[in-house]
Specification:
It is a single chain. The protein contains 8 helices and 12 strands. It is of the alpha+beta class. It has a single domain, classed as Histidine kinase-like ATPase, C-terminal domain (Heat Shock Protein 90, 2-Layer Sandwich), CATH 3.30.565. The strands form 2 sheets. Strands 1, 2, 3, 4, 5, 6, 7, 8, 9 and 10 form a 10-stranded mixed sheet that branches. The protein has a two-stranded antiparallel ribbon with strand order 11-12. A hairpin with a 7-residue loop joins strand 2 and strand 3. Helix 1 runs antiparallel to helix 2 and helix 4 packs across helix 5. It is globular and about 65 Å long.
Length: 329
């Protein structure tokens, strides 16, 4: 099995068994194939298992998706104007009003934005072993930059980029702890190469090591890559989490659902997100609880109408001096 065949198999797989079969076939037929620890840290378990909630770890991936969209727009616009926050960047480059947010856009405008950032939930083997995929049409990553970005731990890639939400270079990797395999595929904007790898937990001999580690698939000590062909990603990144444990999110709707935590934690996102629920066979546009309260209505929302508000005051800012400001509405 070559790299193109492996990539196709991993993108078409719907359960962990199919991933294991493809992985075994590839490793056995390629002497240069092997695994390296994530972040090139042999002792990386503590850094990756920092989170205790699978839903909140998923939100970190969603935040990274939105950052990737803003990074692409930053490049397209040559960094102009200078944006000092994701909110300013969303307004300048995505057309989302800084104060009113997504509720000021039309249904069609929100849907167009949401098509660029997708969260897809599929049955997998059950609630303890779902297939959770996040797909963005953002900046993407060159194959030789995968290790320094999405496979890194605590790097400083975003520390000076005020227009992005990410800071610590660690949050997204916490999803590795909740799944059996994570397949990462990316193509940078304007590139003719597609880079990919697979992350899994590796047990180590108990007589020599106190604990195991998280590793990623390499060939000749580097993540895999293939020349881009028709049908590949045009740009952006796909992360497919096989065997994702969503025991705490078994409902279709409400607080114990993926849909519920997306709307609740992403209270006022800089861009809309498309949630494709293939377990219960429906799709929704995620615009955050704040925008829903302010009257934003999308396909599938209950009764196709927003909530009734007795009183609404447009957002105003209170200056907190050295501590910035806070918006109240």
């Amino acid at each position: 099995m070559n790299e193109r065949e492996l990539l196709t198999a991993l993108l078409e797989a719907t359960n962990t068994q199919q991933v294991e079969t493809a992985l075994s076939a590839y490793v056995s037929s390629n002497p240069g194939a092997g695994f390296q620890p994530v972040g090139r840290r042999p002792n990386n378990r503590g850094a990756i298992e920092v989170a205790s909630d699978a839903g909140r770890s998923m939100i970190e991936r969603v935040t990274n998706m939105l950052d990737a969209l803003l990074e692409l727009e930053h490049e397209k616009h040559g960094g102009t104007p200078t944006c000092r926050s994701p909110r300013e960047a969303g307004s300048a480059w995505l057309g989302v009003p800084e104060k009113e947010g997504l509720s000021a856009l039309s249904n069609k405008q929100r849907q167009d934005l949401a098509a660029r950032a997708v969260v897809r939930l599929e049955p997998g083997e059950g609630t303890q072993s779902r297939l959770l995929t996040v797909i963005d049409e953002g900046i993407g990553i060159e194959p030789d930059r995968l290790e320094g970005t999405i496979l890194s731990l605590n790097e400083s890639n975003k520390i000076q980029k005020h227009y992005l939400a990410g800071t610590y270079g660690q949050g997204g990797s916490s999803t590795f702890a909740f799944c059996k395999y994570a397949v990462i595929v990316s193509r940078r904007y304007g590139s003719d190469r597609v880079g990919f790898t697979l992350v899994r937990y590796e047990d180590l001999p108990a007589e020599d090591f106190k604990t195991g580690r998280y590793v990623f698939l390499v060939r000749d000590d580097a993540p895999l890559e293939v020349p881009a062909t028709e049908g590949d990603l045009v740009r952006g990144t796909v992360v497919r989490h096989f065997g994702y444990d969503l025991t705490g999110y078994t409902s279709a709707l409400g607080s114990k659902s993926v849909y519920g935590i997306l709307g609740r934690i992403m209270f006022d996102p800089v861009s809309a997100i498309r949630f494709e629920n293939r377990v219960h066979n429906w799709n929704r546009t995620i615009k955050g609880a704040r925008n829903a309260l302010n009257g934003a209505v999308d396909e599938g929302d209950d009764d196709a109408k927003g909530p009734s508000l007795d009183h609404h005051v447009p957002m105003f800012n209170v200056d907190l001096g050295d501590y910035g400001s806070i918006g109240i509405e």
